[in-house]
Design a protein that fits this description.
2 copies of one chain form a homodimer.
Chain A: E1 6-9, H1 18-21, H2 25-31, E2 35-38, H3 41-51, E3 61-64, H4 73-82, E4 87-90, H5 103-111, E5 116-118, H6 124-132, E6 139-144, H7 149-166, E7 169-173, H8 179-189, E8 195-200, E9 208-213, H9 214-217, E10 229-233
Parallel strand pairs in A: 1-4, 1-5, 2-3, 2-4, 6-7
Antiparallel strand pairs in A: 7-10, 8-9, 8-10
Chain lengths: 234, 234
């Protein structure tokens, strides 16, 4: 029997954007799949139902691999996929395995020569980079900055230093309710000539992508409290 | 008068894949735009015509910003966009401004507070990373490796070192006709336990994404001559 496939299924970054950001292959993959691995069961089910309105959620199996769940890779993944069933891996927002722990499941699949099919969808990281005007030929995403204040400043200085020395754009993010504090720390820590891009609400009608030097940002009052944002320096 | 917008318009990675990888927003943006900046005039026109079959190419203006062209940003870009016309920026393949010099045009747009709208489309870099099973929470793309053999080996060792020390996945590429030589050099240079992902023909029916340790790759004969490929180590 042929093995099933592991589809990596992107989800939307904000309500009501599915037609704008998801190509039709995603609907086809969902139609061919009856087992999904998601970060959160409730929102995972909603995502699937929104994209494929005809899906019978009651006969569809959902496994969670979020913060407080552990999936049994042998029982809940390998057994199904070796018996020919496709499995879909979803992130809470955007591309699975990017800025989330999904890659562990993909790595497990590679050990058993299972076909992994990544599907096209929205990545706030790359959309922000495209829109920033900063170097897209050499870039790094380092996730969340450390929470400890001193460590955080040290980290920002290190990222600024790498970008100055190598031209590599440095991309990072923050829990949305701490965005404003992060801006404050960035403006205090970085040198005036450093370029900072703040990319907020990517793909939403309120999308806002602005790149300015640190000294220019200091002249603006920016309030992006609780809005999903990607930060870039270069 | 309102300024025009700068749309960053993704293109397909291989023939015949437009329905699979491009969401409908791209068609809408092309309909609203009559000036395009492209890397190559001939293929740029073909891309636009393929996505919007009704577009009258004869009444559409194309500017080239490829290797051998220079665009006059004031005349060919600013004048149009300040007079309310939208401009579309296209790459030869995939996302504009990622692994191409388009970001210079976006940076120029930011100087004049022009709205930059990045659109969702295929990125071989991120699709390869998703499919690799390697760390997607910390990663860097560094473009092409140096051509000089010694420099190249030094660079590979440096990338391997960063990935070992920080867990940061290192992503890079090669001119397709030198792919096989690069594999040879990687297998000679990296340590046996390093994980190497070779992701070929992304989004095409022949797509192949495999992650193995260097010692496992040494036992396989891999021929990806002339096939577009992304390499990842982690």
């Amino acid at each position: 029997m042929d093995k099933g496939k592991l589809y990596l299924i992107p989800t939307i970054l904000g309500e009501g954007t599915q037609n704008a950001v998801l190509p039709s292959t995603i609907l086809e993959a969902i139609k061919e799949t009856n087992i999904f691995i998601v970060e959160n069961l409730r929102t995972g089910r909603r995502h699937i139902k929104k994209i494929d309105k005809e899906k019978n959620i009651d006969t569809t199996t959902f496994y969670a691999y979020g913060k407080y769940d552990t999936i049994n890779l042998e029982q809940d993944f390998l057994k199904h996929i070796l018996s020919g069933q496709n499995i879909g891996l979803l992130s809470e927002a955007g591309l699975p395995c990017i800025a989330d722990p999904g890659s562990e499941i993909v790595a497990y699949a590679h050990n058993f020569q299972i076909d992994v099919i990544p599907l096209v969808g929205p990545s706030s990281i790359l959309l922000a980079l495209m829109g920033s005007g900063l170097n897209g030929q050499n870039f790094a995403f380092t996730g969340y900055l450390p929470i400890d204040k001193l460590e955080r400043k040290k980290n920002i200085r290190k990222l600024e230093d790498i970008s100055k020395k190598t031209g590599q754009t440095q991309i990072f993010m923050e829990t949305p309710y701490r965005n404003n504090q992060l801006i404050e720390t960035l403006l205090k820590t970085c040198s005036n000539s450093t370029k900072l891009c703040i990319a907020t609400d990517i793909t939403l009608p309120t999308e806002n992508i602005k790149t300015k030097t640190v000294v220019e940002w200091k002249q603006t009052k920016t309030n992006i409290n609780k809005k999903p944002t990607i930060f870039l320096i270069g």
